[in-house]
Amino acid sequence: MITTVTAVALVSVVVLSLSKSQEITANFKCNKTFQNLVLNHGLIFEINRASRIHCASSCIENHLCISFNFHHGTQKCRGYETLMLTRDAGTYEEGWLYYFHTINGFCPNMYAFSRLYNYCLGYEGQFLAADGFHKCHEKGGQLPLIRGEAEMRFASLLAANFKNLSRLSNRDLMIQGSFDNTDMKWKDDIKNILPFTVFLPGNEIPTNTERYLYLRKPLSLESYVMHHRKGETYKAIVVCMVN
Question: Which one of 14, 145, 221, 240 counts the least CB within 10 Å of its CB?
Fold first, then answer.
């Protein structure tokens, strides 16, 4: 026999479960462009989960997780510390769906939200330097600012989406940084000295004026290095940061 107290407790459990489900669903968006694709890098876990809600919950529990793949047939759940920005970054396999974490009403449409760095970010395309700046400003954002080794890894994994492009310059990810010839320092958009830089030896100081910063792959997908060029001839990857 179910007592009134028991019934109330059961209803409370159901309401809490529905609330959690609705909260998780609201915080993740499916990108159908990447249907039937499995992301090839940035994997932090691969487990079995009964549903996409359970998979999303596992992603929420891991502070590094910003996106996931879920396969309804096999119930496989793959969580990532990076985003899929292009179909070339995935392997075709039927049945997979791709979701990314966001905050509706705060992040621009189709922008993800990084809980680790507390900002929204999204891929806008490939542009020359001036056009790239303009694209980000249109969204009320700016190019990514790299403040340490962990953020360098995060940006490197984003750039790794484009590792298969034929032209080396088109694989570059634009980041904040312009060279101040007076102070002989690299500075961010508000003219503060960059808190973190990593160049190949001998490439720290540009020989020409109006040089901008990019990431270029040296050895691994997790560890790119910075380099500089004018950005007036070849297009580069533009990912915008909004906070």
Answer: 14
The predicted-structure confidence for 139-165, as pLDDT tens digits, reads as follows: 899 999 999 999 999 999 999 999 888
pTM: 0.88
3-state secondary structure of 211: coil
Measured in residues, the chain has a length of 243
The whole-angstrom separation of Cα 141 and Cα 45 is 31
Burial degree of 121 (CB within 10 A; 0-12, 13-18, 19+): buried
- Give the 3-state secondary structure of residue 132: helix
d(CA 138, CA 155): 21
C-beta of residue 83 within 8 angstroms of C-beta of residue 158: yes
Q: Could you tell me the CA-to-CA distances from 22 to 25, 53, 56 in Å, in that order?
A: 5, 9, 11
Tens of pLDDT, residue by residue over 7-25, are 444 333 333 344 566 667 7
Domains and CATH numbers, the chain: 27-101 (3.50.4.10), 119-243 (3.10.100.10)
What's at 154, amino acid-wise? F
CA distance 117 to 88: 26
Report the share of the chain in percent with pLDDT over 70: 90
